[in-house]
Write a structure and sequence with these properties.
mainly alpha; elongated
Length: about 80
């Protein structure tokens, strides 16, 4: 076989392993979601991994911070 194919398969394996480990060690998703996302990663090697990676990054982002109103500040009416 061609060396490029070997390197591609190794790269996909490393990519999928990295994403699977991120899913397993994520504290923000439950066990069912971890199992389902791990299956998606390995059944759809490139597309599934990219989708799960996007979702993990979206979950890990902090929620947007809005202005806090403690009721003591100046108010414009």
């Amino acid at each position: 076989m061609n060396n490029t194919l070997y390197y591609s398969l190794i790269g996909f394996g490393i990519f999928n392993t990295y994403i699977t480990l991120r899913v397993i060690f994520s504290s923000q998703i439950n066990a069912f979601q971890k199992a389902a996302q791990s299956l998606i990663i390995w059944i759809l090697p490139v597309i599934g991994g990219a989708i799960v990676l996007y979702l993990l990054n979206d979950i890990d982002r902090a929620p947007p911070q809005g202005p806090t109103d403690d009721g003591n500040g100046p108010h414009i009416y």
